[in-house]
Amino acid sequence: MHILIVEDNALVASGIQAGLELHGFTSDTAGSVAQAQAHMTSRQFDACVLDLGLPDGDGVSLLRQWRGKGLALPVLILTARSTIEDKVAGFQTGSDDYLTKPFDLQELVLRLRALLRRAGGRTSDLLALGDCQVNMATGEVTCNGVAIDISRREWALLQALLQAHGRVLSAAQLHDSLYGLDQDVGSNTVNVHVHHLRKKLGADVIDTVRGLGFRLGARYCGGAA
After folding, report:
1. Which of 27, 62, 75, 80 could anchor a disulfide with 3, C-beta 3.0 to 4.6 Å?
2. What is the pLDDT of residues 120-155, one digit of tens each?
3. How many domains does the chain have?
4. How many C-beta neighbours within 10 Å does residue 137 have?
5. Residue 184 has pLDDT above 70, yes or no
6. Best mean pLDDT range from 13-22, 112-121, 212-221
7. Is residue 225 in a domain?
8. In this structure, are residues 138 and 152 in contact, taking their beta carbons and an 8 Å threshold?
9. Is the CB of residue 2 less than 8 Å from the CB of residue 43?
10. Are both 168 and 200 inside the same structural domain?
11. What are the DNA-binding region positions (predicted)?
12. DSSP conformation class of 92
């Protein structure tokens, strides 16, 4: 899952980014309203962690613009503003969650996972894929009770396909789920990760839709375990 972190304190932003990466997320950071708008225009994100006090504007106003344009991605406000009035304003503007600073990284991760679970229409973190079971919270995959070694990039790709519920995702969309803006990678990397997942989980775990991209294989479209 690809997270946009909008935070003007570079130290806080880098700490959140490093922590999210340890928990299997891909992320990019923006230190201002302008940077956040530019990132949101150029990439697709699965959720946003949004600070309110930004150098060129207010996070609430930014969120209001996004919601006014129909942008529906989950947004978690992360701010030092702790009054009930601030929280009411955040939720009324369209925030999906609100966490005050100082905060615990583990709580932030749990809240993000809950937002993504709800956005994906799931009530459980355990998903069945034929003979395999996927834990969306931990990234653990087992097939017939045997643990499968999945790399971080392979997991990000599989997670994106699972979250898509059978919709076709282009190579560019999958690339955005796997890599941040500052990572220079080859154009064939998505195909390489698809190949590896097919070898580990079965040739039909991912379908190729010629000219469009990839989607989860039909027989692997399971539900909560």
Report:
1. 27
2. 777 788 888 878 888 888 888 998 889 999 888 898
3. 2
4. 17
5. no
6. 13-22
7. no
8. no
9. yes
10. yes
11. 124-218
12. H
